[in-house]
Amino acid sequence: MRKKHRLIVAGAMLAAAAVPIVFARPADAQTVAPASQGYDALLALYKEFRAFVPPPMVQGVPDYSPATMARQYAELQRFEARLAAIDDSAWPIPQRVDYMVVLAEMRGFEFQHRVMQPWKRDPAFYSTTNLGFGPKMHGAIAIPKLPIAKDKADALAAKLNAVPEALRQARVNLTDARGDLARLAIVQKQVEVNVYGELAAQAAKLQPSLAAPAKRAQAAAAEFKAWLESIEAGLPAYGGVGAENYAWYIKHVLLLPYTPEEIKVIGDREYQRQVTWLKIEEHRNRAIPMPEPVKTAAEFEAKRKTEDEDLLKFLRDGQWVTIPDYVKHDPEEGPYVFPFEKDPKKPGLFDPPQHLHFFFQAEFRDGRPLRAHNLPGHAFDALQNARDTRPIRGGQRLFFVNGLRNEGWAFYLEEFLIQSGMLEDRPKAREIDYILGAKRAARILPELKMQANEWTWKQANASLISRTPKWMYPGDAVAQFDIELYLRQPGYGVGYYMGKVELEKLLSDVAMQEGDKFDIKSFHDRFRAAGSIPISLIRWEMTGKDDEVRTMR
């Protein structure tokens, strides 16, 4: 296993000339409105709002008590009223786009309070470790490799000592827990029990001051798990937000101009298309064997390095997009490990006999499609965003507001490899690409059904497994992780495909506006320079068309 594992769930590094992307800054707000109600007022309000979002901490424990959450919701409504009092109608489009980003995030927080209420409905929300299990409580602990410096050890001990009280309060707060969410939390908590146990064992050898706090955290996690096991059978089964709430969230937080019914039609059609192209490829390549997966960490690292360098060279030489010098192969990235596989009781990835989940079945054979998703996709996004100093566009988005933009760009790059010709001499990589595409389309129906409370997690999981053309079986870590995430974070499962659909729509709009002057490298650069924001807003900024945005105010 590698020293460092990064969750780059949909990305690939785009490479090109080392020319930095220049971010267009909004026009001077004072030329279009008084400072008290102009763009400066929006910036000040946004800064105040972002500081307001985290829950108060009381003796190292985030306070999600009913009284505190009620006070926070009341204050949120005052923030929303203050935003509504700002008139942006005369502002330049880039500033109005920023206004909509702020509005979407405030609505996202409203949705947390009004509908999702994870502090009272979702036992998995009380993840005390930051292992990657989707949405979680504020202040979850990143487990370090020991030994660590004394000041860091003291800080970690304080966090570990707060775990029992955090989980005690969780049992009080969870007044509307749901069965599916409780069952997911039981699996999560068993991993935490094992992680804390391993930390305690390592601390006893390397950092004794942490051994007792880790054991106390382990005991608290085990008690919380036992409590969930004692109540889960009597809880309401479904964990979705309901069809009406889901439709509101899609339109008013994610700013996606489609109804759930339209998303289903698109998803079904795209699934059929991916499977059809896969079967054509399989017949075309029927005399060519599928590559066998690599078996060792050394083989994996060498293969990934070659794939990354091939990908970056292709993108640079083809003048497809501007890629700064900071986008490059990262030898420390290592294989991505799902949260369930971070359980120290499980064997290592390269320990025989090898059990590869769906994504590793693809990546260990030919990783170019997934590397496109993760390197010029998510990694490029993260690196670029870290350098974006704009006060609104450059911030980390809240409440999945940018989810469709990020997943859509990353997924767009997968099929881009086929259409651009990079896989022309790699027939089995084309098959892998279509397998991945079919799997992403197969995610859409499970999310829609779970959020409408028509399917349980188990039914949704079975659907994803049965409709994925290859390499996915009951118990697969990818299916386990995906369906949990799509239940606990609305929009994630549909985001890959619908984000790609939005991007393709934008490209066609710009291409038809510009005619023969259209240049795809320029398009990609302008799209990326807009920042990590909903694509409907990027469309408004790039084309001047506000037909979609008008319906979202």
Structural class: mainly alpha
Low-confidence stretches: 1-35
Main sheet summary = 2 strands, antiparallel
Could you give the order of strands across the largest sheet?
Answer: 1-2
Cα gyration radius (Å)? 24 Å
What coarse outline follows from CA principal-axis ratios?
A: globular
How far is the first residue's CA from the last residue's CA?
48 Å
Output the number of helix runs.
21
Q: What fraction, in percent, of the residue positions are helical?
A: 55-70%
What would your notes on this structure say?
It is built from 21 helices and two strands. With 553 residues, the chain is mainly α. The protein has a domain at 127-173 and 179-234. The protein has a two-stranded antiparallel ribbon with strand order 1-2. A hairpin with a 2-residue loop joins strand 1 (57-58) and strand 2 (61-62). Helix 17 packs across helix 18 (477-488). It is globular. The relative contact order is 0.14.
Provide a short characterization of the protein structure:
This protein has 553 residues and is mainly alpha-helical. Helix content is 58%, strand content 1%.
Secondary structure: elements and pairs:
Blueprint: H1 39-52, E1 57-58, E2 61-62, H2 66-84, H3 93-116, H4 118-121, H5 150-173, H6 179-206, H7 211-231, H8 243-252, H9 260-284, H10 297-317, H11 358-363, H12 368-374, H13 378-386, H14 403-420, H15 427-442, H16 444-451, H17 457-467, H18 477-488, H19 492-514, H20 520-529, H21 535-543
Antiparallel strand pairs: 1-2
